Amino acid sequence: MLSVRDLTVSLGPATAPVDIVAGVSFELAKGEILGLVGESGCGKSMTSLAVMGLLPQPGPQIRAGRVLLEGSDVTQLQPWQRVEAGHGRMAMIFQEPMTSLNPVRRIGDQIAEAVRVHDRVSDAPATARARELLELVRMPDPAMQLSAYPHQLSGGQRQRIMIAIALACRPQVLIADEPTTALDVTIQVQVLGLLRELCNRLDMAMLFITHDMGVIAQLADRVSVMYAGRIVETADVAALFGRPRHHYTRGLMDCMPSRNFGARRLPTIAGQPPAPGTVGAGCVFASRCPAVREPCRTADPPRAEVSRGHEVLCAFPLDDGGPR
Amino acid sequence: MWSYSLKRAATTAVTLLAASVIIFAFIHIVPGDPIYVLLGDTATPDQIDALRHQLGLDQPIVLQYLTWIGHVTEGNLGRSIFFQAPVLSVIADGAETSALLATMTMIWVTLIGVPIGMIAAVRHGTWLDQGLSGAAMLMASIPTFWVGLYLILIFAAWLGWFPSSGYPSIFEGGIVNLRYLVLPSLALAAPNAALILRLTRASMLDVSREDYVRTARAKGIRPWQVVTRHILRNALLAVVSAFGFTFAALLSEAVVTETVFALPGIGRLVVQSILRRDYPVIQGVILVIVVVYLLVNLIVDLSYRLLDPRVELQ
């Protein structure tokens, strides 16, 4: 469905590029939910914007790699160009529901606008479809909400509107960039439930970006863990949480409060992630890795498939022969 | 909406009252006397005293103010000392020119400032943007009278397309007389259009970084639709409020423009009346200007409600 190969996004001049996303590859199958997890600044949002064709201009550029959607190359294409060319359909929802809707236009208009583009219909059927979409995202009183303005709605309701706008594009792939981070915990649960249900019902694949391992565990089928612009480990959810193979993934899990119930102090990963542009040869995690060995500092780690569908970017993965 | 309008009307009345005190006080503080202007150097002290008494200028200033403001509330702005005619009719004579000049100027400001600002924003960073922004900076920096003189030189003296000065009423010569106002309104519009241009550009660039613009792009609508449907209207919120200030600037710049183009407008009237110490006319004109200015700002505030649904008028 969606295939991203060696995607590299860089800032700065072409002569001295600073890679903020470095050779990211992943596959997203039909109806699958792939979680992309990592800490702030690891490049997960940039990855999603690059895939979607929404990198801010002027700003970071896709320097290398390809994005294939339904087999057609959509690298560097903005959403309107994909629509023009009749390629596969991809939509996106964002982190900030409070600022992601146009404050001076009615909800109905904002949804219908997307419907008109993708269904190529006139105003009346577009409004009817907008109403259906509001029902689909379970907005109470959809007919009323069509004429509401964003400031009259709560954060959770606005995120439902954002989902409705995304669904208006009839996406085969939905990219969700931290869609619940700005919401209350109870609302978060509702929105996650809704997204999961919509993926099943509409047979829609989703790339779900978050820094919250707990959310990933509930929602995703597979997970990719990102660190310093690279995907360091990819596996099925059960495999990753049951038996993490990368030392960074392991470190992230140790930080989860739910896994350390009753602990007075949560363990942390010592040190800071490297700043973009300071990454030299060797493993990007070497400076913080508890199991670092000498070759890690000089040689790039290999990408190895340690078991079926479980890839790790590490020369000496966890649990690899002998007790840890 | 109506209760808001009423509240605004009340505050407007208070502002007007304060303005009337300030106008009256300042004019009487200025040295000089209409008596000498009227009677000349050869007047005898008896003549001077008689005229002063006749005009009521021998009374205490507070009493003079109260008499004046009393008449104003009845709609009577007094009589011009110089013209020997009601102030209201003196102002009415100049009002036609000034109102048409202001209207034409605001039309130029809108037609030039907003679309070109929009183009500069859409093409920002390119040579086109730099050229337009640079030209705008230049126009904002050049004094109105200089622009006026060059417009006269090029379009009146060399090309002969437009008349260079004066303005016969459209009620006498028909609508074609508006051609007399083309050059003065352009001169007056130049610096203001430049400001609106730069403001439109800056405001559009600000808005284009908003999250909802990214949402609009994600929908797959074309770039120009993103601009017209999502960026422009939000950017205009900031521009609309600037129209109020622009109008205020217009009132003072009109004084110069009307002099350069010898237009029989309010601006020139106020300057001449100050030189003649024609107190009732000065007071009347400034009061009218204050009223117009307050009205324009009221309209600007009300139009906010139409542009931005978040604004609650209370």
TrEMBL record, chain A:
Coiled coil regions in record: none
Pfam families per the UniProt record, alphabetical: ABC_tran, oligo_HPY
Record keyword ATP-binding present: yes
PROSITE patterns given in the database record: ABC_TRANSPORTER_1, ABC_TRANSPORTER_2
InterPro entries, per the entry: AAA+_ATPase, ABC_Ni/Peptide_Import, ABC_transporter-like_ATP-bd, ABC_transporter-like_CS, Oligopep_ABC_C, P-loop_NTPase
Keywords from the UniProt entry: ATP-binding, Cell membrane, Membrane, Nucleotide-binding, Transport
Membrane-topology descriptor: Peripheral membrane protein
Subcellular location: Cell inner membrane
GO biological process: peptide transport; transmembrane transport
GO molecular function terms attached to this record: ATP binding; ATP hydrolysis activity
Claim: Repeat is one of the keywords in the record: no
Residue span, ABC transporter domain: 2-253
Annotated GO CC locations: plasma membrane
PANTHER family reported for this sequence: DIPEPTIDE TRANSPORT ATP-BINDING PROTEIN DPPD, OLIGOPEPTIDE TRANSPORT ATP-BINDING PROTEIN APPD
Family: Belongs to the ABC transporter superfamily.
Function: Involved in beta-(1-->2)glucan export. Transmembrane domains (TMD) form a pore in the inner membrane and the ATP-binding domain (NBD) is responsible for energy generation.
The name this protein goes by in its record: Peptide ABC transporter ATP-binding protein
UniProtKB/TrEMBL annotation, chain B:
Stored Gene3D superfamilies: MetI-like
One cellular component (GO) term of this entry: plasma membrane
Membrane topology reported for the UniProt record: Multi-pass membrane protein
Family, per entry: Belongs to the binding-protein-dependent transport system permease family.
Domain ABC transmembrane type-1: 95-300
Entry keyword set: Cell membrane, Membrane, Transmembrane, Transmembrane helix, Transport
Pfam family for this entry, one: BPD_transp_1
Cell location: Cell membrane
Gene Ontology terms: biological process: transmembrane transport
Presence of the UniProt keyword Cell membrane in the record: yes
Membrane-spanning residues: 12-30, 99-122, 134-161, 181-199, 231-251, 281-300
Record-given protein name: Peptide ABC transporter
Record carries keyword Cell membrane: yes
